[in-house]
């Protein structure tokens, strides 16, 4: 009986040692990739260009352009450590016109430190520190933003989100709608960040590339933290110091992680 008990004890010690060894997995220097899938929708439905969507205040809208900038993407792991994607490559334009057949716009991040990550943080727009680097300090992203119509002038800065289309209400039909929210140089900072928890950890290894499905509810740009009326001036949002901070706050709250895949 003592021999049996001793054998069981030795077996348990071996199992515990093995688990301990697994827990202490050395990931030093190992990297992998992460795919972010941005999926624009409206009130839980897939977004479709030039489809009429009803909002509050007896107003509706149709959109023919949907673009926004995300930047400063970073991840927090289970131990509280943060990995920031390299700054020079850490700005992306999410353009609905580039969506695949599933309605997703993919952003592939390479060279991410191997870890088990529990949340993602990213900014909407360009922060003041990056803007302060001047036009020469923007790298290739400045040219990309200009080509995509996501700039006013350098003095005014980037358009963080661009929604173009028309709106209707009880008195007017198909009136021009242009929401171009951004900071205004250094005088008005509308850069916002959002942090989204993953429903389960994503596992980044050199042979594992997780996919993060992020849904953006475009309705919340108009009917979000604060509802706005197109008929009260929010049909043309550009550099106004009252309107743009409201839209910036709404836009920052329109994202959620729907699900993740570990491959």
UniProtKB/TrEMBL annotation:
> Domain Copper-binding protein MbnP-like spans what residues?
32-229
Sorted UniProt keywords: Signal
Has the keyword Signal been applied to this entry? yes
UniProt-listed InterPro entries? MbnP-like_dom (IPR046863)
Provenance organism: Seonamhaeicola algicola
Name by which UniProt lists this protein? Copper-binding protein MbnP-like domain-containing protein
Give the superkingdom in one word: Bacteria
In the UniProt record, the signal sequence range is: 1-24
**UniProt keyword Transferase present:** no
PROSITE patterns the UniProt entry points to: PROKAR_LIPOPROTEIN
């Amino acid at each position: 009986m003592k021999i049996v008990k001793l054998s069981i004890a030795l077996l348990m010690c071996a199992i515990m040692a093995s688990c301990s060894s697994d827990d202490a997995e050395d990931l030093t220097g190992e990297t992998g990739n992460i795919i972010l899938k941005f999926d624009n929708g409206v009130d839980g439905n897939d977004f479709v260009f030039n489809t009429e969507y009803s909002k509050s205040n007896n107003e509706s809208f149709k959109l023919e352009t949907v673009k926004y900038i995300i930047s400063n993407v970073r991840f927090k792991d289970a131990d509280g450590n943060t990995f920031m994607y390299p700054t020079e490559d850490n700005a992306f334009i999410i353009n609905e016109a580039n969506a695949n057949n599933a309605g997703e716009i993919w952003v592939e991040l390479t060279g991410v430190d191997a870890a088990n990550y529990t949340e993602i943080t990213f900014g909407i727009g360009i922060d003041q520190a990056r803007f302060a680097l001047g036009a020469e300090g923007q790298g290739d992203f400045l040219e990309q933003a200009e080509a995509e119509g996501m700039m006013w002038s350098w003095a005014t800065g980037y358009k963080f989100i661009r929604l173009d289309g028309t709106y209707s209400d009880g008195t007017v039909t198909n009136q021009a709608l242009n929401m171009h929210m951004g900071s205004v140089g250094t005088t008005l900072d509308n850069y916002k960040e959002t942090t989204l928890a993953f429903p389960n950890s994503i596992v980044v290894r050199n042979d594992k590339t997780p996919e993060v499905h992020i849904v953006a509810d475009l309705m919340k740009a108009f009917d979000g933290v604060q509802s706005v009326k197109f008929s009260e001036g929010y049909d043309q949002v550009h550099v106004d110091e009252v309107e743009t901070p409201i839209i910036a706050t709404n836009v920052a709250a329109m994202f959620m992680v729907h699900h993740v895949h570990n491959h």
